[in-house]
């Protein structure tokens, strides 16, 4: 669990520390399967006994940590965070938090860092395995151990194949859900069957290779590594090799048998439970991203708290002479009812909590909060309705894909008004549509085909770029011009190769300089190729990436609407550098129909005036314009912007 904790703390060398969870899955699968095989072979298998052991192992420490988070959530969370927290109480109690976080956040997203129970997704996966696997093993055992082994092997292979499809097509579901994680638990089960048949065979080379495989993935994998996928075979395979071949006679076995490692192993479950709430509440409470030194201090604090809860919570509940079966089941049920009731109540009464929270705030925070609450990035586009849909007029609308219905509508618009203007791209292009539509509100035919999260270099079957290009190729007279935009942060990368993400900036304090980030030539090349192909059909203007402030809500609330806002040192210059690299690449395309325009020069962002006032904010989050921002910056566009 230590690599997982250090990864969440932001320790750069542990870029793949998240694979500790995968190793844990293997070990869990191995231990549970070993116990179940013993009981089935001895004819003493009992599903009640199994769930009693799981309840003793998991619930007391989990409920204790959940209980300890309640006063901090009440004291420090914003109303929106409190509602998320209440929902997570429900999901954690029902061991469905992997479903909740699949639907509401990404594991590597900035906002996810402020979710105290984000890490419980892995407990949910494990519990779902505990519910299903014993029943399967009991029913299948009649066919014999060998056939059961092959059944599990086939299911593991199927799960791995699903994960290979999943990271390409549904990456969030792939990360969080049981079907794409099951093979890692089954890997431990397979190891248990092998050991039951052949025993543990001491092997210096294979156990050492297993240790190196885990270490390699910890230090060389990054957030950009597709996961889980065949890449997960490295840490999972390494864990299996250690289970199969590491004895005290091997270097790996002897190392892992050292007292410090054994002690960490004993408290690892509690340490895992404690670390994310500590990190999340630190990020919630502090104005800016906590320093690495402070996060390492909290990592050590997690170990101290883990030692306490292991001794005074975990241990007493594991001893049957201290806590009877009846007591463990009654207390577990009471805990589940309590947290379910609390979560349901908190979710239902969140509007009242918001009123209570606002009443406790000073005037500047209250005024700033009211302004921020209007800047919902999902809905904050000019002309959008309550569902975030921009349908301004028959020929002035923004859509996700050129469906048959949309194509018929576009043709009718072209027949009525002549060629129109198309805004094309990702969520920044959604902003741009609001900018253009508000600025040129008398233009009869302006359409957007945009999707948040869809970029030309991140292929997804539901994205719109290929279908839009095909439509334009088949219908060249419908539009006279395409204005293209992509979010700049995803055209950047870290020097270590990690692909660009908003967290590159949001994890920095405003006083920290931006460094070790550079243009991503691969992504830029793919985007240039796309607009080059489009420009062979009709004129294309790339509205180059905007400089993105990435200033967090906590900072804004505490700094206030009258505070001073600015880009981090080197941040604006980095986007200037990115712009230069894109322009150079576009300059190599010999096509007069492909042009570009500097968004930063056009809008000339000065965050002193262009971030917020006490009446409105011009950014809905770290990099998107608000509705008022779209109008403000749109007013700076020249008349010829939509001409062709």
Keywords:
644 residues, alpha/beta, Rossmann fold, 2 domains, 7-stranded mixed sheet, two-stranded antiparallel ribbon, 27 helices, 9 strands, 60% helix, globular
| Biggest sheet architecture | 7 strands, mixed
Give the rounded overall mean pLDDT: 92
Major beta sheet, strand line-up = 1-2-4-3-5-8-9
Q: Would you report the number of β strands? A: 9
Poorly predicted parts:
none
Structural class: alpha/beta
What portion of residues is helical?
55-70%
The structural domain count equals 2
Strand content: 5-15%
Radius of gyration: 27 Å
Principal-axis shape equals globular
Q: How is this structure best described in words?
A:
The chain is of the alpha/beta class. The protein folds into two domains: 2-351, no CATH class; 391-642, SGNH hydrolase (Rossmann fold). Helix content is 60%, strand content 6%. It has helices at residues 2-9, 19-41, 47-76, 79-93, 97-104, 121-140, 145-169, 171-176, 182-198, 204-220, 233-245, 251-256, 259-285, 292-318, 325-348, 350-360, 363-373, 404-417, 427-439, 465-474, 503-506, 521-535, 553-559, 571-587, 599-603, 607-610, 627-634, and strands at 391-393, 396-399, 420-425, 446-450, 479-485, 492-494, 517-519, 540-543, 594-597. The strands form two sheets. Strands 1-2-4-3-5-8-9 form a seven-stranded mixed β-sheet. Strands 6-7 form a two-stranded antiparallel ribbon. Helix 2 (19-41) crosses helix 9 (182-198) and helix 3 packs antiparallel against helix 14. The radius of gyration is 27 Å and the shape is globular.
């Amino acid at each position: 669990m230590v690599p997982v904790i250090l990864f969440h703390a932001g320790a750069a060398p542990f870029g793949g520390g998240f694979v500790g969870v995968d190793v844990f899955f293997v070990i869990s699968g191995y231990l549970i399967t070993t116990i179940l095989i013993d009981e089935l072979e001895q004819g003493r298998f009992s599903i009640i006994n199994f769930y009693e052991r799981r309840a003793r192992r998991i619930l007391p420490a989990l409920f204790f940590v959940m209980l300890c988070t309640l006063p901090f959530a009440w004291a420090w969370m914003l109303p929106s965070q409190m509602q998320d927290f209440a929902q997570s109480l429900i999901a954690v109690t029902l061991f469905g938090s992997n479903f909740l976080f699949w639907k509401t956040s990404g594991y590597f997203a900035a906002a996810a860092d402020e979710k105290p129970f984000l890490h419980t997704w892995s407990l949910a996966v494990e519990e779902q395995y505990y519910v299903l696997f014993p029943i399967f093993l009991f029913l299948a055992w009649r066919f014999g151990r060998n056939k059961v082994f092959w059944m599990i092997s086939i299911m593991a292979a199927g799960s791995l194949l699903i994960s290979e499809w999943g990271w390409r097509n549904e990456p969030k579901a792939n990360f969080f859900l049981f079907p794409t994680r099951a093979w890692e638990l089954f890997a431990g089960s397979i190891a248990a069957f092998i050991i039951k048949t052949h025993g543990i065979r001491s092997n210096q080379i294979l156990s050492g290779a297993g240790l190196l495989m885990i270490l390699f993935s910890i230090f060389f994998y990054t957030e950009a590594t597709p996961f889980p996928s065949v890449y997960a075979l490295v840490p999972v395979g390494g864990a299996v090799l250690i289970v199969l071949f590491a004895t005290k006679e091997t270097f790996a076995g002897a190392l892992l048998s050292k007292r410090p490692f054994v002690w960490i192993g004993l408290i690892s479950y509690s340490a895992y439970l404690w670390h994310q709430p500590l990190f999340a509440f630190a990020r919630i409470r502090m104005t800016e991203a906590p320093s690495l030194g402070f996060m390492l201090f909290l990592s050590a604090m997690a170990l101290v708290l883990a030692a306490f809860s292991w001794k005074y919570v975990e241990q007493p509940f594991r001893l049957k002479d201290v806590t009877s079966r009846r007591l463990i089941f009654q207390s577990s049920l009471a805990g589940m009812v309590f947290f379910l009731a609390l979560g349901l109540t908190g979710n239902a009464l969140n509007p009242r909590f918001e009123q209570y929270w606002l009443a406790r705030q000073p005037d500047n925070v209250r005024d700033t909060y009211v302004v921020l609450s209007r800047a919902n990035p999902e809905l904050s586009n000019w002309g959008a309705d309550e569902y975030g849909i921009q349908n301004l007029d028959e020929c002035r609308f923004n859509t996700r894909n050129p469906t048959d219905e949309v194509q018929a509508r576009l043709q009718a618009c072209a027949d009525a008004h002549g060629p129109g203007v198309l805004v094309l791209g990702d969520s920044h292009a959604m902003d741009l549509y609001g900018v253009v539509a508000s600025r040129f509100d008398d233009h009869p035919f302006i359409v957007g085909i945009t999707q948040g999260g869809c970029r030309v270099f991140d292929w997804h079957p539901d994205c719109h770029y290929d279908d839009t290009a095909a439509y334009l190729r088949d219908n060249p007279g419908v539009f006279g011009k395409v204005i293209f935009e992509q979010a700049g942060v995803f055209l950047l990368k870290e020097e270590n190769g990690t692909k660009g993400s908003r967290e590159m900036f949001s994890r920095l304090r405003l006083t920290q300089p931006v460094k070790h980030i550079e243009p991503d030539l691969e992504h830029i090349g793919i985007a240039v190729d796309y607009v080059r192909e489009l420009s062979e059909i009709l004129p294309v203007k790339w509205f180059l990436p905007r400089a993105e402030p990435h200033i967090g809500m906590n900072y804004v609330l505490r700094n206030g609407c009258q505070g001073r806002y600015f880009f981090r040192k080197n941040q604006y210059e980095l986007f200037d550098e990115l712009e230069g690299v894109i322009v150079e690449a576009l300059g190599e395309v010999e096509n007069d129909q492909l042009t570009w325009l500097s968004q930063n020069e056009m809008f000339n962002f000065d965050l002193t005036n262009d971030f917020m006032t006490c009446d409105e904010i011009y950014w809905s989050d770290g990099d998107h314009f608000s509705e008022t921002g779209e109008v403000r910056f749109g007013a700076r566009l020249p008349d010829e912007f939509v001409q062709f």
